[in-house]
Amino acid sequence: MQAVFNKLKQSPYLLLVLATFFWGTNFAFSRMVVEEIPPVQLSVMRWTIVSLVFLPFVINEVKANKAVLRANWKVLILLAITGVGGFNTLLYIAIQYTTSINASLVNSLSPLLIVVLSVMFLKEKIVPWQLVGIVVSLAGVFVVVTGGSVEAILALRINPGDLIVVVAVICWSIYSVLMKRFGVDLPKKATFLITIYIAILSLIPFALFERTYQPLELTSLSPSLLLMVVYLALFPGFISFICWNEGVMQVGPGKASNYLHMIVLFTTLLAVLFTGEILTKAQLIGGILILTGVILASNPQFLSGNGKADKRAVS
C-alpha cells in the first residue's frame, strides 16, 4: 500500500482526481446503502471504521501535540460538529429524498459559500466578478432544486432533500472557514482524528434516538452491504483524505480547488451507470450555471489582468 502511494505521489494531479472520484462514489453509492442502514447509524459506523484505520498513522502526532489540541478544544468541537459529523450525516439524510446527481450539484456550491463566509468573517475582499459568480451559481441551484419548473416555483414544491443538502453545504463551508482561520496552528492529521472522535460522540445520542424508530441489527446485514460500508469508510473517508492532502501540498490549494468540480462529473456518471438515475435537462443547465458561477467566484483572476501574471509566476 505504501509503495503504491509513494509512486502516486509523483503524480499529484492524479491524486486529486482519485480523491474527487472516491468522493463522487460517496454520493452515488451511499444512496443505495441508506435504503438499508439509517443515515445517522451509517455515519457512526463509517467514522468508527475510519478512526480505527487512521489511528496507527496519527497516534504519534496526537501525542506530540496534546498541548495544542487541548488549547483549541472549542475549535475542535466546532470542526467536528460542522465538517465531520454534520456535513456527512446531513448528506446521508438528504439522499433519502433526492438524487445523487442533485445532491452533488448543490454540494458544488461549497467553494462559493466559502468565499462569502470568508468575506463576512475573515474580512477578505470580494471583486465584482465574484459577485457575478455568486448570482450565477445561485440561479443554477434554483434551477436544480425546482427542476426548472415555473409551477414548482409558484407552488413552492421544492424537494426537501435538496434543502437538507444546502444545510449540509453551509456546515461544510463553516468548517472550511474555521480551518482557514485556525488550521494554520493545528496539526492536520491529529486534528482530523480528534474531530472524528468528537463527531462520533456527538452523533451517538442521535443514533440511539434513530434506533427507536429505525432499529438496525448488524447480524441481519448482508456481506455485500457491509463491504459497501467498509468501502465508504476506507475510500471516500480515509484514502481520499490522504490523496487530497498530498495533492494540495504539491500543487497548491488554488489549483487543487478546481478539481472539486469533478465530483459532480463522477457522481453523475456513477449514478447513471449503477443506480439508474437519469440526467435531466434542468440538472444539466443548473449544473453548468453552478460550476460557471463557482469558477468565477473562486478564481476571479481568470478574468483579470493578474491572471496571466499569476500563471507565469506559477509555471
Please characterize this protein's 3D structure.
The chain has 315 residues and is mainly α. It is built from 16 helices and no strands. The protein has helices at residues 2-8, 12-33, 39-64, 66-71, 73-94, 100-107, 110-121, 128-146, 150-155, 160-182, 188-213, 223-251, 253-257, 262-274, 281-298, 305-314. Helix 2 (12-33) crosses helix 6 (100-107), helix 3 (39-64) packs antiparallel against helix 11 and helix 5 (73-94) runs antiparallel to helix 10 (160-182). The longest helix has 29 residues, at 223-251. The chain is globular and about 50 Å long. Residues 307-315 have low confidence and may be disordered.
Topology:
Layout: H1 2-8, H2 12-33, H3 39-64, H4 66-71, H5 73-94, H6 100-107, H7 110-121, H8 128-146, H9 150-155, H10 160-182, H11 188-213, H12 223-251, H13 253-257, H14 262-274, H15 281-298, H16 305-314
Helix pairs in contact: 2-6, 2-12, 2-14, 3-5, 3-11, 3-12, 5-10, 5-11, 6-10, 6-14, 6-15, 7-10, 8-15
